[in-house]
Design goal:
By secondary structure, the protein is α+β, with helices and mostly antiparallel strands. The chain contains 12 helices and 36 strands.
Length: 759
């Protein structure tokens, strides 16, 4: 079977709600859940007219049961849902429910629970994934604590000294599709499956309309949303599928249920789905990215749009995300933001920054600039970003004090923001720190790492937060900050890879990068879709050939860097598109756009300097503990960082034609992109230079490493400078620069593109 990144079939038309429903596809023994899917004996879902509207219509990795007597946690790494008591008191009632694949989000309704499943693996993929996730999680593994043990105590349970076998992306990726699964609460088993519907692979976000009649589900890597009739959870069916921009994630319904908004992991626009009560359609909706921090005359880009929240009155939409290139004191990488939209007009409610120009720093000023007491303290300089919010992951609205509770994945925090402020990210009410037991070198935590999902108790006095890299559930009293913990499961990866998992999301270790974790630019091991600017900006005397990344030219405090270099010449900046890494780092090397790093260890050592402000130093190759941290990240990247799931199916006739063209002498594509070598020969050929894009400088070195083409259909834009926005653009504009596509007919180009999307 060949693998494809395309969605499951073409979009179908709006179906008649009363039409017969096809039965769900059969499930093989190798992919069946370990918990019985028989109908429950104690609970039957209420008919739609009798249902209580869900308190929270948007999905999350944590949810409160409809009866408000249990908290549900989706753990995709162990492929289970935990059903725990609210007070963490009687653990004998805790249940661990095996899922048919990795669960992403949960919505609890009156009588049943919906869970998105990212992939239903094939038999081969199931076997490979089981080796990575280890033994099944059980209730006996769950423990309660209030004072967290140190890192060393946690690691006694890890597989010390065990080698971390490299995962095979061609096997692990194989999928029979994503799923939306309905479960009924069950006193004995916790949850019992009562229905499922197959979706495009990588089913992730879900939201339910206020009437509980339909759900909208996002399939992230497939770039698709599905509208699902859920009135009868035993016979759910897809009524419409719609293509979207890259990486759709969080979903939020309008208050009347006629439309929904979808956030994206890549890009600053939202998707609005309208006509949900008639004929649904989708359109992009621009939402200004941190306008109060934008460089004068330029718009910032965005990434990490994992979640959305709607105000209780339905008038305001909140979008936590990362503002790439936004201004801020010491901010080379931008700033975390919560962008605010008026639902009625689709316009941003945030003020626009009007101070022009970058801050000027006199010669000899210390690199660590002080925080300005007010906006005008340094002309043109925005305030320092709120590091508590770095890598925003999930959000809920707390009505009792009109607060947005935002999880900072990179800082291990829950931060309460004033939802009524023009710019909530600048109006912090309180911060709840989760991470504890940090390693003395590396700063990865024993508990509270990478908060991923959050839910509120019915009276909003308690927060429940799932921390994904340490597999803990925190119960936090909002008023006192007191915490009680459940350690839900141990990391099944070998100890080095497990440490790498913890480090991958952490923004705290200053030695790794300046204020961001790896997951900021490589969320889920993928990419932020952004073209960074690389220049000689190192004034610290550190390693890394003096090179640094910045989001935009305005992020450079030019006079400061020029004075340190003893020149008034402007800094030259070259484009560097963020590459996807999941499933692409199995080989030893070389790495880097110019292929000048012999292996991944060397590349990440250099990266610890590239990814930081020019006034900071990264890891030296002479520091053993620093090199060990890099080793941990490499082990995780090769043994535990799963590539996106893609549908396993035979090629269509058009795709077969494209495959033939790809492997033919006519195009010469396979000369460098060798199928037997991960679709690359890892050579560094000299190429004809591309036109220099606005905002960048021409390069003298035009030899670029041949990239892997695995997953290319979902990683736009293309080339090192991102100048090809689509695969169609790439093939059409290539000419004879890389192989030869200039002489292809329109049909041949279409066939070649169709095949590339299957890789």
């Amino acid at each position: 079977m060949l693998l494809v990144g395309a969605v499951l079939g073409a979009a179908c038309g709006e179906a008649d709600p009363g039409a017969p429903t096809a039965a769900p596809p059969p499930v093989s023994a190798s992919t069946a859940p370990r918990v019985s899917s028989a109908a429950p004996t104690s609970t039957t879902p209420a008919p739609p007219a009798a249902r209580t509207p869900p308190r929270t219509t948007s999905g999350n990795a944590v949810a409160l049961s409809a009866a408000a007597d249990r908290v549900l946690v989706a753990d995709e790494d162990h492929e289970v849902v935990f059903v725990a008591p609210l007070a963490f008191d009687d653990l004998s009632s805790l249940r661990v429910v095996e899922m048919p694949g990795p669960p992403a989000q949960i919505v609890a309704l009156d009588g049943f629970v919906l869970v998105t499943i990212r992939t239903l693996p094939t038999a081969a993929s199931r076997s490979a994934r089981d080796a990575i996730r280890g033994p099944a999680a059980t209730a006996a593994d769950v423990s309660r604590f209030e004072t967290a043990p140190a890192v060393g105590a946690k690691e006694k349970t890890a597989k010390q000294g065990s080698p971390a076998p490299k995962l095979d992306p061609t096997v692990v990726r194989q999928s029979q599709g994503g799923l939306l699964v309905a479960f009924a609460p069950d006193a004995d088993k916790g949850l019992v499956e009562i229905g499922r519907v197959t979706l495009a692979p990588d089913a992730w976000g879900v939201a339910v309309d206020p009437a509980g009649a339909r759900a909208v589900v996002s399939s992230a890597f497939a770039a698709e949303v599905a509208i699902v009739d859920i009135r009868d959870p035993k016979a759910m069916r897809v009524t419409k599928t719609l293509p979207t921009a890259r990486e759709p994630r969080g979903v939020a319904f309008s208050k009347d249920g006629r439309s929904a908004f979808v956030s994206h992991l890549v890009g600053g626009e939202l998707t609005e789905i309208v006509g949900l009560d008639a004929t649904p359609s989708a359109a992009s909706v621009p939402l200004a990215v941190a306008p109060e921090r934008g460089p004068a005359g330029r718009e910032s880009a965005a990434s990490l749009g994992y979640a959305l929240a709607l105000s209780p009155d339905g008038n305001t939409l909140f979008a936590p995300r990362h503002a790439l290139g936004a201004e801020g004191n010491e901010s080379w990488w931008g700033a975390p933001t919560v962008d605010v939209m008026d639902v009625a007009t689709k316009r941003s409610l945030q003020p626009v920054r009007t101070l022009a120009g970058a801050a000027t720093i006199a010669t000899g000023h210390p690199p660590a600039m002080t925080d300005p007491p007010e906006w005008g303290a340094l002309e043109g300089q925005a305030p320092k970003p709120a590091l508590e919010l770095v890598q925003p992951r999930a959000v809920v609205y707390r009505k009792r004090n009109d607060a947005l509770l935002v999880l900072g994945e990179g800082a291990d925090t829950v931060t309460a923001l004033d939802a009524l402020a023009p710019s909530p990210a600048l109006a912090i009410i309180d911060t709840f720190k989760l991470g504890n037991g940090y390693a003395p070198f590396g700063e990865y935590p024993a508990h509270g790492g990478a908060p991923t999902g959050i839910a509120l108790s019915r009276d909003e006095s308690v927060m429940y937060v799932f921390c994904r890299t340490t597999f803990d559930l925190a119960r936090i009293d909002y008023e006192t900050g007191d915490k009680t913990w459940l350690h839900l499961a141990n990391d099944a990866l070998p100890v080095a890879a497990a440490r790498g998992r913890a480090l991958f999301t952490e923004a705290r270790p200053g030695i790794l990068s300046g204020g961001l974790g790896c997951a900021a630019c490589h969320p889920d091991g993928r990419d932020d879709g952004y073209v960074w600017r690389e220049g000689h900006l190192d004034v610290s005397g550190g390693a890394g050939e003096g090179k640094r990344f910045v989001g935009q030219r305005a992020n450079i405090k030019r006079e400061f860097f020029s004075s340190q270099k003893g020149t008034s010449e402007p800094t030259l900046l070259y484009p560097r598109q963020t590459p996807m890494i999941a499933g692409r780092i199995r080989s030893n090397g070389p790495y880097g756009w110019h292929g000048d790093d012999k292996d991944m260890l060397v590349r990440l050592l250099k990266g610890s300097n590239l990814h930081r402000g020019g006034w900071e130093k990264g890891i030296s190759p002479d520091v053993g503990q620093g090199v060990a941290m890099i080793h941990y990240l490499v082990e995780y990247g090769r043994a535990g960082l799963l590539p996106p799931p893609t549908l396993a199916r035979d090629l269509t006739e058009q795709e077969k034609k494209g495959k033939g063209l790809f492997e033919s002498e006519k195009t010469g594509c396979s000369t460098c992109h060798k199928p037997e070598r991960e679709m690359t020969d890892r050579s560094v050929p000299p190429l004809n230079p591309l036109p220099t894009l606005a905002g960048f400088d021409p390069e003298s070195d035009n030899a670029f490493k041949t990239p892997s083409l695995w997953f290319i259909g979902g990683t736009a834009p293309y080339f090192h400078d991102g100048s090809a926005k689509t695969l169609e653009d790439l093939v059409k504009s290539n000419g004879s620069r890389m192989g030869t596509t200039g002489g292809l007919s329109t049909d041949e180009r279409d066939a070649l593109v169709a095949y590339l999307r299957t890789l």
